[in-house]
């Protein structure tokens, strides 16, 4: 069965520091992979997606993610975080039967 | 223009009542979803419709009944509400199959 693991429930970084959020997936074929962000009281906004091709994908708000098939990972990175990046981040995998499965999320806290 | 809109945004009701949440998308997408987000922020798919036809029904109690009058609308009706139904319910849509999903702002349901 398809699954997504986000091993870090909470991550705290200082403003201006770099960020990496981890995501591992389980899927039998080449997956569709997504990162979404949810600000408090808001819906989910797509940051970036990977379907095929270049394994380093660029997204909105200065985020990028790298697909590593050998590690079944799709980690999200940002070189310098801003206070407005504090939110919940969800990694998701698209499955063949039209289902998008989400990880349990990582809450990002930013220290001033 | 709101791409995926849900009403109401907040819903407080007593146990045993019946309530509905409405969802509309103006993106021309064929596929629509209902997701439930629990208090720990875990997102779980409930239903998926493709062009008004039910595609996915994820072991949801039959008190929950989705209805899609046309491909732009997917409503969720809940009978005999229970305390455990308290959650945020998100509607989403996607162009077809497993491409990125566009989410509404969510409906926070509180059952008292």
CA-based gyration radius of chain A? 13 Å
Strand content of chain B: over 45%
Largest sheet report of chain B: 7 strands, mixed
Secondary-structure element series of chain A = EEEEEEEEEEEE
* Low-pLDDT residue spans of chain B: none
Structural class of chain B: mainly beta
The coarse silhouette of chain A is globular
- How many beta-strand elements of chain B? 11
Average pLDDT level of chain A: 92
| Overall average pLDDT of chain B | 92
Give a quick precis of the structure.
Chain A is mainly beta and 112 residues long. Chain A has strands at residues 3-5, 10-14, 19-21, 24-26, 32-38, 44-50, 56-58, 64-68, 73-78, 87-94, 100-102, 106-111.
Features:
heterodimer; A: 112 residues; mainly beta; 6-stranded mixed beta sheet; B: 112 residues; 7-stranded mixed beta sheet; 4-stranded antiparallel beta sheet; 56% strand; globular
What do these coordinates show?
The complex is a heterodimer of chains A (112) and B (112). Chain A is mostly beta strands. Helices cover 0% and strands 53% of the residues of chain A. In chain A, the strands form three sheets. In chain A, strands 2, 5, 6, 10, 11 and 12 form a six-stranded mixed beta sheet that branches. Chain A is globular, with a radius of gyration of 13 Å. Chain B has strands at 4-7, 10-13, 19-25, 31-37, 43-50, 53-57, 64-70, 73-78, 87-94, 102-103, 107-111. Chain B has 112 residues and is mainly β. In chain B, strands 2, 4, 5, 6, 9, 10 and 11 form a seven-stranded mixed beta sheet that branches. Chain B has a four-stranded antiparallel beta sheet with strand order 1-3-8-7, with no helix packed on it. Chains A and B meet through strand 5, strand 6, strand 10 and strand 11 of A and strand 5, strand 9 and strand 10 of B.
